[in-house]
Fold:
Amino acid sequence: MRSRQVILTAIAGIAGFALVVLCLAFALTFRGAGQGQHVAAIGGPFTLVDDNGAPVTENTLAGKPSAMYFGYTFCPEVCPTTLLDLSRWIQKLGPDADKLNYVFVSIDPQRDTPKLMHAYLSSFDKHIRGFTGTPEQIAKIAQEYRVYYKRVPTDDGGYVMDHSAIIYLMGADGKLVSVIAYQEDDAAALAKLNKLLATSASS
Amino acid sequence: MRFLLTLATVAMLTAAACPAFAQGTGNPPIEVEQPWARATPAGAQTGAAYMTIENKTGNADRLTGASSDVAGTLQIHEMTVVNGVMQMRQLADGLPIPAGGSVALKPGSYHVMLIGLKKPLAAGETFPLTLTFEKAGNISVTVPVQAMGAMQDDKSGGMGGMGGMQSGKSGGMGGMEMK
Structure:
């Protein structure tokens, strides 16, 4: 009776210890992922069309770092504001601006045809290209870039989209370098873009 | 005579200084101040109008809808950016305007969303907008269109107005501060 209790206590103790070790191992693993692998996991192959209707893939952007923004033309505020900010930064980069790709990827492929995106982008800096595709193709690139987007119905039978509102700065190798947050100030955004330019010069 | 002139001048100035009142009622319950909208990109089907709504009455009111001949549908929306995700929500019950208080419709917050624009909103133009309130009824205002980068009702904006950027937080063009 007594010995059974001792054994049970011992088993409980061992199980508890094992649990703590497991938790620690998990925590360390995820910490490691957060520092390296997780960042590297953003981005990946895609097949889309540009705003001229021409097919594009990740190879279209290869060789130059890229600033990528995911949004939609039906967006009344955040997207035009961000594209306007980006246009201003592009102008401030001067001739160096040509060393980067700038892409506006639609997360609303139902509405955003290449033609509509082309017209829309005519209001912004001419460096910015539009990418769109089938809903499946957009779902794939959104997943690769960890872009959140969700369709929200409105009472007129229409819909608006919730979506990530950050600009991804990708290296020439297609890996994430940093991000520019919505409404980030000019100095900080330009510093990041210049840093991105520097990665292309050294590679 | 002099007194009458002064009185007339004061009356005129008062009338000029008061923005749109609710029509049809004698008292000025709700005032719509500094309405403005942003120019929209080519091909864009949506736009947003902003303003400050002041409720000078002792009763809470509610902005329930809007109409304009520049767009097919107008809705009252709230925009937020949470953890880097932009969310836009239609305010199904309208936007409460507290008694004696005022509510600002501005970038990054509440706006009147214009859906199905008949043509792009161009900077320098104006368009009519009728706001519908639960108690105050309809109030019509004329909305000037600012440059696309404008962050508030202001004369600045546009790609050229960048020189006076304030340190740190940039709202958009022209050094306007956001929020």
